[in-house]
Specification:
CATH architecture of the largest domain in chain A: Orthogonal Bundle
Oligomer: homodimer
Number of strands of chain A: 0
Strand content of chain A: under 5%
Number of domains of chain A: 2
CATH topology of the largest domain in chain A: Tetracycline Repressor, domain 2
Largest interface: A-B, 73 and 73 residues
Order of helices and strands of chain A: HHHHHHHHHHH
Structural class of chain A: mainly alpha
Helix content of chain A: 55-70%
DNA sequence: CCCGCCTCTCGTACGTTGTACCGAAATGAT
DNA sequence: ATCATTTCGGTACAACGTACGAGAGGCGGG
């Protein structure tokens, strides 16, 4: 809000945030826009769903909208910001637990909703950012998680730490599940080829003497469970949190 | 294993694994090689350290070695495989706990070593793969973790599940720490600019009424701790595991 | 009504990327 | 000396993000 320039020369970072928090309504002046910002974000979401984040190119998004590539830059400063917007839009889909639920139920729902989101839109896990964008709906999710834990009487630092633990767990599981699901289906390998390659690996290079524990666990079927155990492990995690809650209450 | 071709036309995936598990020794025939595979992998590691994974280009690696770009393809099938090799090399740096330590000590060391590795080589966290490559030293690490937990008498499925939980926690913390560390230092923003942008965000767009819990926790200093609490949270996680161990022993 | 300004549209172009292709150069085996 | 084999690397292509600027369309003030 500098007084010298009517439009403060905002930095790139500020521009990026402005788009997320204060999307401009179409101005009445000048030529009419064929698209809305939301159109662009939606097209991006469509493209990314079956091309992956690497396959998300401005040209493809533009083609999907039937416009020239450069047209997108009227609505969005660049690819990075488009992805931010897409993430925000995705997080808006979360059905976050209200304040009425007991904390354990609420946290379970919080975790499941996040996992489902990641499984539905795995590209979110591919965004290379170190943290999620500072976007409204992302903060909504964080707020909901914090609120649940803050209601247990835990100290502020503990609350932050524990919601981080849950987030981290959920992302980890989602990542593993996606890996399992997409194994071989990508890279253009048929399932047979993939199986051949893998069994070839086990017989050719895998040395049971170097990896005895892995071998034993494999033979015992320890790797079979997959990650159907999401809820079970989550419960154990919540047990740990409950312990901290009880300790704080005493 | 078709009989028509003496060298079975291995798939790409098999080639990728072959390079990791059976690096070819330089053949005595033909022109002498100026480089070794290890030279290339090391150069890649150097480049990635200060250019990030996005900045890791074949041309830069080649330039760093003083050779033409295409020369690298004599040693490595492509960029993807080079990254695989770099990851394997990085994991070889881990000082994994031996079988002599009590499980809690061993698991603490396991976790700390991994965290240190990720902080030292953050680009590993940027590799977009859904899971780490099936590489010897990566499996060494996994084996070590599994061995520690298998020694506690837990069932195979539990062992797999819990080591996954630890891995996931470590990666999550490392990611957050890197984010914190690199905040603003990248993107060419000076620290002042970054601070300005951020305080601008809080005053301009952040709405305390929309995010009351976040606001309260912020005011209480709940976010200040950063992630110095790695050990503390890890201890709590190990408490949870100890509970499972005791329950299994009973 | 019309002029001028403002906004959107997008063809062209530049730099960068991974890597396919192929000839040239170098070396051990014969 | 000849040949097979291997490394080396220039050239080239497709795809990428996006800077630039000319054109097209539509509103406000005269």
């Amino acid at each position: 809000m500098t007084s010298s320039t009517p439009t403060p020369d905002t930095t790139d970072a500020a521009r990026r945030l402005a788009l997320l928090w204060d999307p401009p309504q179409p101005s009445t002046r000048g030529r009419k826009a064929r698209l809305t910002l939301d159109d662009v974000v939606e097209a991006g979401t469509v493209v990314v769903q079956d091309a992956g984040l690497d396959g998300l190119s401005m040209r493809k998004v533009a083609a999907h909208l039937g416009v020239g590539a450069m047209t997108l830059y009227t609505y969005v400063p660049g690819r990075t910001e488009l992805i931010d917007l897409m993430v925000d839009r995705a997080f808006a889909e979360l059905d976050l637990p209200g304040a009425d639920l007991p904390w354990r139920t609420a946290l379970t729902r919080y975790a499941r909703e996040h996992r489902d989101l990641y499984l539905r839109r795995p590209w979110i896990l591919q965004t290379n950012m170190w943290r999620l964008p500072l976007a409204p709906h992302v903060l909504d999710a964080e707020e909901a998680g914090l609120r649940v834990l803050a209601g247990t009487g835990l100290g502020p630092a503990r609350v932050v730490e524990l919601i981080g633990l849950v987030d981290t767990y959920v992302r980890g599981i989602a990542r593993a599940t996606v890996a399992e699901r997409a194994e071989g289906s990508s890279s253009g390998l048929s399932n047979d080829d993939y199986f051949d390659t893998m069994s070839g690996f086990w017989t050719t290079w895998f040395d049971p003497e170097r990896y005895p524990t892995m071998t034993r666990i494999w033979e015992a079927g320890g790797f079979d469970a997959g990650h159907a155990s999401f809820d079970a492990t989550l419960d154990r995690l919540l047990d740990g949190i409950e312990l901290a809650v009880d300790r704080a209450a005493a």
